[in-house]
Amino acid sequence: MADILTTKARGSIAKTRAGSIDEIQPVRLGLVCNDNALSRQAGLYQQQFGFERLRIPPGSGFYLLYSIQGLALCQHGASPIWVDFVAGAMGHRRRFGGGRGQPLARAMGMKPGFNPAICDATAGLGRDGFVLASLGSRVTLCERSPVLAALLADGLQRAALDAEISDWVAQNLKLESTDSSDWLDAVDEAQRPDVVYMDPMYPPGKSKVLVKKEIRALQQLLGPDRDSSRLLEIARQTAQRRVVVKRPKRADWLAGEKPSTSIESKKTRYDVYVTL
Ligand SMILES: C[S@@+](CC[C@H](N)C(=O)[O-])C[C@H]1O[C@@H](n2cnc3c(N)ncnc32)[C@H](O)[C@@H]1O
Hints:
The radius of gyration is 18 Å and the shape is globular. The strands form three sheets. Strands 1-10-9-8-11-12-14-13 form an eight-stranded mixed beta sheet, with helices on both faces. A four-stranded mixed beta sheet has the order 5-4-6-7. Helix content is 30%, strand content 23%. It is an alpha/beta fold. The protein starts with a strand and ends with a strand. Bound molecules: S-adenosylmethionine. The site of S-adenosylmethionine has 23 residues, from helix 4, helix 7 and helix 8.
């Protein structure tokens, strides 16, 4: 796990435009593991991400379950959520998602012979970052929630065991368990990404777009990303070529900032801020 991950599990400072500072406290959950053979790895996740070990699931709310299938985010009455880069929706999107012609790839400025280095500043369940890595870009997945970072670390561990994808996953995907504002602030000049990609959590209820059940669960667990205007500012100062912000199709521009151009798909808009 140490190869895959760099961890800085701590609160993030969100500076609002008005200048006030809020400490964003990471949500930490209890971790259940009833399989003795998996106990050592469960202990590593527990230590690395600061989870409490539970013997049985709590009576209500979210918890993490580590089983032979992997690490899952669970909630009573809902299907478990895990990061599966090998099969399921991700396997399907990798094979049939439209390749470099899909709006996400076009928004990144991918061209024949050019695969931009990308910082996925809001990695979440890693779906967009994984697609971009499968198309040839080197992607740094930055995720500040210890819960999501642990799910990603576990998904990457299982991807590393898959004969079909392990080589390019090892080469193209790196996880940073940290706030991307801090990562972008600290990145070496030579390592500055060509593109910073942002897909912040949109406040629920503002959009009529039907959100997928996973994203609904994340909204419930983490709440909206209130500091994304600040992240956009830092991203625009750091990206060598462009910042791309994913928005629901009819949503306002992030922070009221007009993009250089936008690329639309059925339900989504990618606002592109050229920084060259
Ligand atoms: C809507 S989800 C992203 C979904 C992702 N694009 C995918 O394909 O799975 C937003 C995620 O960004 C993370 N996030 C928001 N602001 C962040 C920041 N400044 N640094 C790191 N992670 C951040 C949140 O914790 C959340 O997990």
